[in-house]
């Protein structure tokens, strides 16, 4: 009797799941055909509802359909590759999302991207602004490190710094600024080229900061040991970048590689922070815990609030205070190492 009841209950549940799946498929198909019809219609008329765009006066390769050459879009706007098709797709997506919301649906991704609202021609305005801010903070951190090390701290008789990791921090600063520049470009307008540049810069920075973590945490000052550690990491990162650019821009794989390199360096810093007597180890702790929490935002993606702020944009916001803290740690470390080296020399 009990068995029968359980069986009936399960079969009812199973039917409900099947019905739900079927309904979802029907709904998705409906919305899909809705968008396709909308884009087709738009490419013919140049309008979605009340909004019309001038791009549709041109064919998708930028040549005017029926007008003189001076009606073409200016060159400085053409790098964004907004053409009739992408304009239509964007506006049909907005209309569709509005309709879905009215029917109580949640946002869905289009070609792997959340439906963002454009502002002033920028695809993800919040991420662009935050990337620019990150670039500014990074530049400020690097310059203040530069001033400290060359103008405030004593130099060796041969005009070199006592601090053994100066060069590494310089490369780190340059790679970071490079990343934030391409990140701002990519979030302005994502096409394959800008995506590859953003992705490759991120991998390069993550790889290099892993090298920095190993060299600093294990106090490697010997040139040969440094090369031994760096060479395999550089080889791996180069191969991965070449693979992404010229073979397969694989999101899933890249995410795994980035998370693995990120977790590895957080672990190294955490272990070092708990073992060392470094006067600024509390900054390391905050950076490690903050970095770990920020990484969760990258992994647990959520749709953009009001069409503007998604998990990725929030992640760009958290890196601003972390960057400030990180350079402050670098400066403390330079001071600490220099003073202990000078004490030893006396
Ligand atoms: Zn980004």
Fold and architecture overview:
By secondary structure, the chain is mainly alpha-helical. It is 71% helix and 1% strand. The chain folds into two domains: 30-106, no CATH class; 125-345, Rhopdopsin 7-helix transmembrane proteins (Up-down Bundle), CATH 1.20.1070. It is built from ten helices and two strands, in the order αββααααααααα. The chain has a two-stranded antiparallel sheet. Helix 1 (2-45) packs antiparallel against helix 3, helix 4 packs antiparallel against helix 5 and helix 5 (166-188) packs antiparallel against helix 6. It binds zinc ion (ZN). Zinc ion (ZN) binds at residues 127, 183, 187, 312, 316.
Sum up the structure in keywords:
two-stranded antiparallel ribbon; 2 strands; single chain; 346 residues; mainly alpha; Rhopdopsin 7-helix transmembrane proteins; 2 domains; 10 helices; 71% helix; 1% strand; binds zinc ion
Q: Which blocks of ≥5 consecutive residues have pLDDT under 50? A: 59-66
Calculate the mean pLDDT score and round it: 82
Q: Roughly what percent helix?
A: over 70%
Order of helices and strands: HEEHHHHHHHHH
Give the CATH architecture of the largest domain.
Answer: Up-down Bundle
CATH class of the largest domain: Mainly Alpha
Membrane topology: Multi-pass membrane protein
GO biological process, one term: GPI anchor biosynthetic process
Protein name: Post-GPI attachment to proteins factor 3
Transmembrane segments: 128-150, 162-181, 201-218, 225-247, 253-272, 284-300, 312-330
